[in-house]
Write a structure and sequence with these properties.
By secondary structure, the protein is α+β, with helices and mostly antiparallel strands. It has helices at residues 49-71, 91-111, 144-151, 169-175, 205-209; strands spanning 2-10, 16-28, 31-33, 77-82, 119-124, 131-136, 157-161, 188-189, 199-203, 218-229, 235-245.
Length: 266
Amino acid sequence: MANYKKVTPIGRNRTIIEIELIEKCILKDDRLIWIPDPKERNPKKGTSSEKQQARNNAKAMRNLSRKINENLEPGDLFLTGTYRGKIQPTEEQAEKDIKELIRHVRQIGKWMGARALKAIAVIEDEDKRIHIHALFTATLGADEIIIRSLWKKHGKMIISTLDPTGEYTGIANYISKETPRPHKKRWIQTRNLRMPKSEYEEITKEQLSEEIEAIPGYRKLYETYTFIDGADGIGRRYRYAKFIKNGNYDLAWGETETVPEDIDND
C-alpha cells in the first residue's frame, strides 16, 4: 500500500480544485481503495453506526457537490416545488412526480432540438411537509413558464437562477441536509451527469504531515487534517484542501464578488 495525492479539478473552467492526501491505500481502476493491511496489529473491531453514518453523509454530500459543480453553471435553474392542501403525498409519490416533470421537460426539449436536460433532485419532508428541490440545466424546454405549468397540478413551483460564482457547494449542502431513510436513494438524477476526473500521484509519509501547497492563480478556501477509518478498522491520516480560482467567490463560505482578482497564494 502507498500514500496518494488525489487532485480533482471541478467545473468546466476548473473553477474549483480539491486536493486530498490519503494514507495507506491502493489505486485500482482510477479509484483509491483501502485494503486490510496484514502488518497492522489490533485493528478496531468496528465503529459505531453514528460514526459510519456521519462518514457516509459527508462522502455523499461531497459527491453531490462535485456533480452539481461539474454539470451546472451560472444561469441554470434551481427549483423548489411544494404541494398544496393538508393531505401531503408520500415520498414515493413525490419521487414519481419529479421524475414525471423531468421526463416531460426532456421530451419538450427534444421536440425543440435542444441538448439533453441534466437534472438532480431531492425530496424533503421537513416539518412533515413534502417538497422537492431540483437543479435543471437551462436548455430549451426548461423554461420557467413550462415548468410551472407542468407542476401547477401539484402546487407551487419557485424558480431561481444559479449565481455567477460557478461554485454551488452551499446549494448541495442545503438540499442534502436531511439524512435519508435506510435503503432510500439520496437524490434523483438524469443519467447524463458526469463526475469530474481525478488525477493521482504517490506521495511520501512526510508530505501527509505538511500543509498542502498553494496553487498559482487560486485561493485556498480551507484545509482540514484528520483521521478516518479504513475498511480494516485502522485509522488513517487524511488531509483535504479546497481551492477556488481567483476572480471567483464562494457564497457558501460568506464570500462576496468583491474578493480581489489578483490575490494569489504564492
